[in-house]
Amino acid sequence: MTPTTSLSTPPSTARDPRRYRKLRRFVLRTFVHAFWWDVILTFPPLAPLRRSPSERWLVIARRYRGLASEMGGVLIKIGQFLSTRVDILPAAIAAELAGLQDEVPPAPFAAIEKRIAEEFPGGSPFSEVSSQVLGAASLAQVHPATLADGRAAVVKVLRPGIEILVETDLAAAALAIRLLGASRKIRRRVDLERLAREISTTTRAELDLSAEADNAERFAELFADDPGIGAPRIFREASSRRVLAAENVTAIKVNDRAGLIAAGIDPAAVARRLFRSTMRQIFELSFVHADPHPGNLFIRPLPAPEPEDAGGPLPETETGVPFRIIYIDFGMMATVPPHLRGALREYAIALGTRDAARLVQSY
Fold it and tell me: Residue 345: enclosing H or E segment and its boundaries?
């Protein structure tokens, strides 16, 4: 999982100067804020002037959320990532940033149609693409569609101009990481260069939807023996590097507890199966869905009993109707190398047996 590229902008890719200047102002303003309140005002004579760090950073989180909602791009992805890091951020700040999961404005439909036409100059593989937006993410958006042969599908299309936006945002992120490097405390706790490379590599990889198609098909093949886990079918004839056509698997969101209960599905059984699936991805398959937020996990009720051709009986759900967990969005996948997988196994065994020495050794 070691990235090999830096956060720097490839020389062949342009940036948006106005966007970069706006992002740079926000980064510098935040850096000055942190330097004043968390460095200058720590000196004893000035300490009484300090305000609560949580209150101050909540204000900055709100400003960031507003900026990300307005400008989109990588800013949304970074905010969504930070909103899940309750281990390093106060709950109030994480909750503020979590709102970004539902605040991505869609691109104009005319621009989406133009993008599809550019990808298939010989003729569209779709008989119809609806202007309805099923999902708007930071890098792409999804519309209902009908293939030329009449099959129903959904089509994921990269936002027009997203390549320039991504490189501009990565340049601003590089500036922020360089400024963070001024703190010795942060440098001791975080490998900033590695963080920069990982952000860059992961984000740029998501701009290749053909790679996402490969990942989805590989994931489905690896779980072919488990009828309780699924992935959408990919329609290769209607897919390209910037357009991805797939089966419509929209169902109940994994965090819709009320919806699950109304459908007769036991939320505790969902949690257990999701845990087992994650452990299998890490320890057995070495191929891990690295972006399993609620928007990327659907729960589909199934008839009982499960059809014979679905791979065998479903795992015991204890109570409630049978269901399948369906993963979508395979743009971020992690491959676990053998040495790391072995160390993680040792770590899990040590944790379960309360063996402190073994725990430290595996770490």
Answer: helix 338-353
* Residue 225 known to be catalytic: no
Neighbours of 48 (CB within 10 A): 7
CA distance 21 to 265: 50
- Burial status of residue 18 (CB atoms within 10 A of its CB: 0-12, 13-18, 19 or more): exposed
Tokens representing residue 49 in the block: 């002037």
Q: What is the pLDDT of residues 25-46, one digit of tens each?
A: 999 999 998 888 877 877 777 6
Closest to 104 (Cα-Cα) out of 58, 52, 142, 150? 142
Per-residue pLDDT reduced to its tens digit, 71-110: 888 888 888 777 777 766 778 888 888 877 666 788 899 9
Give bridge partners of residue 119 from the DSSP assignment. Answer: none
b/e map of 244-273 (b: 16 or more CB within 10 Å)?
bbbbbbbbbebebeeebeebebbbebbeeb
Q: Which of 16, 169, 226, 291 is catalytic?
A: 291
Task: Provide long-range contacts, Cβ within 8 A and 24+ apart, for 174-181.
Answer: 174/7, 174/8, 175/24, 175/27, 176/27, 176/30, 176/31, 177/7, 179/27, 179/28, 179/31
Q: Which uninterrupted H or E stretch holds 287? A: strand 287-289
